[in-house]
């Protein structure tokens, strides 16, 4: 059990450190990585589906994503560590594609917030789909702690990718449905 916890913390820690190293390199070199974000309905912008979660527009942007990434990402790992990787992959691919397909033209979308919203969607929906007391309790606690984030799926400021948030949240719900089984009637 102790080794599992250590491994999970290492995975989260290394992931967060990687985000910070990438942002540091991006910042000192004049933000060249921003071109690798999601550029909606542009073929070259498809590459951003994979790269956008690793790139941030500023250190402030990264700071805003780091704590929820660590917290919600850690909670995704509670049941199984493999859930973290599976949910991450589903959210990155589906959420990124939804952003690419529906976000505004002539925009670039970067940041781990789509992934963070995906973890939120997964944790909220897992309680509904799994219907175990532990999953429901976790969903309620997540709503209490992070429910305010749900406002982020609505258009608010022009430089915030509410589309990334929305499609991240939806893809997290899809991941919850796919990874959990309803009790048999």
The overall pLDDT, averaged over residues, is: 95
By CATH, the architecture is named Up-down Bundle
* CATH H level, superfamily name: Rhomboid-like
State the helicity in percent bands. Answer: 55-70%
- Count of individual beta strands: 0
Stated plainly, the CATH topology is called Rhomboid-like fold
Radius of gyration: 16 Å
Specify the number of helices.
Answer: 7
Which structural class matches the secondary elements?
mainly alpha
Shape: globular
- Give the SSE order as H and E letters: HHHHHHH
Low-confidence stretches: none
Description:
This protein has 185 residues and is mainly α. It has one domain: Up-down Bundle (Rhomboid-like fold). It has seven helices and no strands. The longest helix is centred in the N-terminal third of the chain and has 27 residues, at 2-28. The termini are far apart. The model has no long low-confidence stretch (mean pLDDT 95).
Descriptive tags:
185 residues; mainly alpha; Rhomboid-like fold; 7 helices; globular
Write the layout of secondary structure elements.
Layout: H1 2-28, H2 48-51, H3 59-76, H4 81-102, H5 113-130, H6 133-146, H7 162-179
Helix pairs in contact: 1-3, 3-5, 4-5, 4-7, 5-6, 5-7
Provide a quick synopsis of the model:
The chain is 65% helix and 0% strand.
């Amino acid at each position: 059990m102790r080794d599992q916890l250590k491994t999970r913390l290492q995975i989260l820690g290394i992931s967060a450190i990687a985000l910070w190293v990438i942002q540091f390199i991006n910042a000192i070199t004049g933000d060249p990585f921003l071109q690798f974000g999601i550029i909606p309905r542009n073929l070259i912008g498809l590459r951003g589906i994979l790269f956008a979660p690793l790139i941030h527009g500023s250190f402030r942007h990264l700071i805003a994503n780091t704590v929820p990434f660590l917290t919600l990402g850690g909670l995704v790992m509670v049941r199984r560590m493999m859930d973290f990787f599976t949910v991450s992959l589903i959210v990155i691919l589906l959420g990124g594609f939804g952003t690419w397909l529906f976000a505004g033209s002539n925009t670039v979308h970067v940041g781990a917030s789509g992934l963070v919203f995906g973890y939120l969607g997964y944790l909220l929906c897992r309680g509904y789909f799994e219907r175990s007391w532990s999953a429901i309790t976790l969903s309620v606690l997540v709503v209490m702690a992070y429910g305010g984030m749900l406002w982020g799926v609505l258009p608010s400021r022009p430089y915030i990718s509410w589309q990334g948030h929305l499609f991240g949240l939806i893809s997290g719900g899809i991941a919850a449905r796919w990874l959990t089984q309803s009790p048999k009637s």
